[in-house]
Amino acid sequence: MTTFFVGVLFGGIAGGLFGTLVMFVNGFLSPWGFAGLILPFQIVGMSIIGIAGGIFRRYGVTGSTTRVALESAVLGSFLTLIYDIITNTGVALISNVPVVLALMYGVVFSLVHIVSNTLLFGLAFTPLMKTFRAFGELRTVADK
Amino acid sequence: MQTSKRTLVFAILALIVWSVTATAYAGYYHMQYRQLEDTLKAMQSLVLRVNILINYGNGTREWHNATLVPISATVFNATSVVAEVDYTMYGEYVLINSINGVQGTSDVGWIWWIWDHATSQWKSTLEASNKHVLIDGDIIGWNYQNWASTSPPS
Q1: Which of A49, A74, A101, A116 best probes binding to B when mutated, by most B CB atoms within 10 angstroms?
Q2: Does residue B88 form part of some domain?
Q3: DSSP string of A73-135?
C-alpha cells in the first residue's frame, strides 16, 4: 500500500525504486528471517506495485470518492495477485517444483493476502489522498 | 481515459483476480481431495469395515454401518468404537455390563450375534466379545435380551 502510494505521489520510477528498497530492507530485517533466494522475486513484485502507482497517477486519480475507493480496491487485489504469482514462481524455481503446484499450495495464503489488501486499498487509499491533497502535496495529480 | 473504458479496464482486472484465485483454489481443493483419497486407499489395507447393530430390546435399534476398525479388532473393540461400553474382565474374558448406559441385570443382558452370510441368519457363539476377531464385511448385532432366550436380533 505504501509503495503504491509512493508511486502515485512521485511517479512510477520513484515508486519502483521505493518498492525495491523496501523489499531489500525487508529481506534482511524481516522478523521471519533472511528472505534468501526469494528476495529478487519479492523485489520485482514490489517494484511492479510502485510502478503501477505511477501508472494510476498518469491516468488520473479522479472521480467520486466511491469510484476512487473501488478502483484502488481492484488495483490492490490485482497487484497482490501479481505479487503472489511472482513470489510463488520464485518458490517453485528455488524448490524445483512445478509453478502451478506452487501456486495451488500458496492459494490459501494468497486469498487472505488478496482480501486483506483489497480492503486496505479500498478503505485507506482515499483518506490518504485527501490528507495529502489537504497538504497541497498532490496539486498536480489532483489537477489531472 | 474515457470513463466507460476505464470502468471496463477495472472490471477486467477484477475478473482476472476472481478467475485466477478461483481456479487456483479449485486446484488446491482437488489436490487436497486427491491426497485424502490416497490416504484413504492406504488406510483401507489397514482397516476393516463392519456393520454394528445395537438392539435395545424396546424397539430402539441403532445401526452403525461401515464402521472402520483396525485389522484384528474384536467384537468388543468395534462396539467400543460406536458406543459407551461398561464391562468387567473375568480373567482374559470380558463381560459387558452396559451399552450406552443400558445396564444388564440378573435376568436380561447384552448378548452379541454375528450375521452368517452363508445361511443369511444371525448366529450366536459362546465366545467372549473380546475373543472374536472380525473380518472385513462382518455384521454384528448386540441384543438386549433374556439370558435364557435364543432369539436373535430382529
Answers
A1: A74
A2: yes
A3: HHHHHHHHHHHHHHHHHHHHHHHT--HHHHHHHTHHHHHHHHHHHHHHHHHHHHHHHHHHHHT
Closest to B17 (Cα-Cα) out of A97, A113, A50, A22? A113
**Can you tell me the distance from the alpha carbon of A52 to that of A47, in angstroms, rounded to the nearest whole number?**
8
> What pLDDT, in 10s, does the model give residues A24-51?
888 888 777 777 788 889 899 999 999 9
**Closest chain A residue to the Cα of B17, Cα to Cα:** A78
Task: Give residue A62's domain range.
Answer: 2-143
Q: Based on the domain organization, do B105 and B125 belong to the same domain?
A: yes
To which H or E segment does residue A55 belong?
helix A39-58
The reported pTM is 0.63
Give how far B11 is from chain A: nearest CA, Å: 8
Output the CA torsion sign for B130, B132, B137, B143: negative
Pairing mode, strands B47-55 and B139-146: parallel
Q: Please give the residue range of the domain that contains residue B52.
A: 47-146
Kindly state whether residues B56 and B38 are assigned to the same domain.
no
Domain count, chain B: 2
> Is the distance from CB of B36 to CB of A97 less than 8 angstroms?
no
Hey, is the C-beta of B123 within 8 angstroms of any chain A C-beta? no
Question: Identity (one letter) of the amino acid at A126?
Answer: T
Q: Model confidence over A110-140: pLDDT tens digits?
A: 999 999 999 999 999 888 888 887 777 555 5
* Closest residue, chain A, to B7 (C-alpha): A71
Write down the ipTM of this complex.
0.76
B95 and B140: one domain?
yes
